């Protein structure tokens, strides 16, 4: 049985209190959609990770349900607590509540389906991840809710066939699958680094940039990168009701998952119908801006939810330079 685990990441700092819109969320211009009343309401995102601090004041009301696939807590399926911190951090970037304290997520009214597929040490069997994807695909809420996005900030070196088939099946059911690219990058776009499920062609593979829009040296490069998002010095929720600053492509992927939720809400209000997975993907890519790196670094570019504003700024800077 193959193994999968957290993509190595770096804990920069842990703090007890804060009150800020995290820089990465500002960088992708999520507030530009909040100002239009778009907050991810009605969208369910399945987070496959180490679980979640279910009592964290930023997250406890965001969780719609959960399930434990690991051997933690004697394999009790109903206990999906996070004993690592990684899953809680990812959940916060996606969905931390708007409450005037702490932080706020990209999509603060999204609902989270917390699927614990990695144990407290950050490792698990690939079969747990496969079961998590299948569970997310078939899950239904009390009011008929369905998962619209699966977010995975984990990876392994092996192409597991069962996991790949599960991902393919989820995409066919119009679920957008968002995955971290991996942190084995060497800063050279001529060398390939792959982590799975991120490198499966059906998923949205997310690389990392810093808050100056520079590609992170650790970010994997390959021809299947779809786009990039903030992955350095990312402030989000952490264990024991605290907050932490972490770095890695693990932190970039949830920015895109949250952005997808915003675009689903926005698009379905405009079109007055459910969007397909290819349509959601197209809406994401439509809102990327080139950072003038090769596609093997940046894919289509940085997710930017106020693309017009970015283009105007670049044009203004170019005029000033001339």
Using the CA coordinates, give the radius of gyration: 18 Å
Helix fraction bin: 25-40%
The arrangement of helices and strands along the chain is: EEHHEEHEEHEEHEEEEEHHEHEH
Largest sheet: 7 strands, parallel
Q: What is the averaged pLDDT score?
A: 94
What structural class do helix, strand and pairing data support? alpha/beta
User: Per DSSP, what share of the residues sits in E-state strands of 2 or more residues?
Assistant: 15-25%
Class in CATH? Alpha Beta
Spans of at least 5 consecutive residues whose pLDDT stays below 50 are none
CATH topology: Rossmann fold
What is the 3D form? Answer: globular
**Number of discrete helical segments:** 9
Give me the count of strands: 15
- Corresponding CATH superfamily: Peptidase S8/S53 domain
Q: Give the name of the CATH architecture.
A: 3-Layer(aba) Sandwich
* N-to-C CA distance: 60 Å
Strand order within the widest beta sheet: 4-5-3-7-9-10-11
Instruction: Indicate the multimeric state.
Output: single chain
Number of domains: 1
């Amino acid at each position: 049985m193959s193994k999968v685990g957290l993509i190595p990441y770096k804990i920069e700092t842990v703090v007890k209190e804060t009150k800020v819109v995290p820089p990465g969320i500002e960088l992708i211009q999520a507030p530009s959609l909040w100002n239009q009343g778009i907050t991810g309401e009605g969208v369910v995102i399945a987070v496959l990770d180490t679980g979640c601090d279910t009592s964290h004041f930023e997250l406890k009301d965001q969780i719609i349900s959960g399930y434990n696939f690991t051997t933690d807590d004697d394999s009790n399926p109903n206990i999906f607590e996070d004993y690592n911190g990684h899953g809680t951090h990812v959940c916060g970037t996606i969905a931390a509540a708007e409450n005037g304290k702490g932080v706020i997520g990209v999509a603060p009214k999204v609902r989270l389906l917390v699927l614990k597929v990695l144990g407290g040490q950050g490792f698990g069997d690939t079969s747990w991840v496969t079961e998590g994807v299948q569970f997310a695909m078939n899950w239904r809420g009390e009011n008929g809710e369905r998962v619209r996005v699966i977010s995975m900030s984990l990876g392994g070196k092996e192409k597991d066939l069962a996991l790949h088939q599960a991902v393919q099946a989820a995409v066919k059911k119009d679920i957008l699958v968002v995955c971290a690219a991996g942190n084995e990058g060497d800063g050279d776009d001529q060398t390939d680094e792959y982590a799975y499920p991120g490198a499966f062609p059906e998923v949205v593979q997310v690389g990392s940039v810093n808050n100056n829009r520079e590609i992170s040296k650790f970010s994997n490069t390959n021809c299947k990168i779809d786009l990039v998002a903030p992955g350095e010095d990312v402030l989000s929720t952490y264990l024991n009701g605290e907050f932490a600053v972490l770095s890695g492509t693990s932190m970039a992927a949830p920015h895109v998952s949250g952005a997808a939720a915003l675009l689903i809400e926005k698009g379905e209000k405009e079109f007055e119908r459910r969007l397909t997975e290819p349509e959601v993907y197209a809406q994401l890519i439509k809102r990327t801006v080139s950072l003038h790196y090769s596609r093997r670094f940046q894919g289509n570019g940085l997710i930017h939810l106020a693309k017009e504003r970015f283009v105007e700024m670049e044009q203004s800077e170019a005029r000033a330079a001339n």
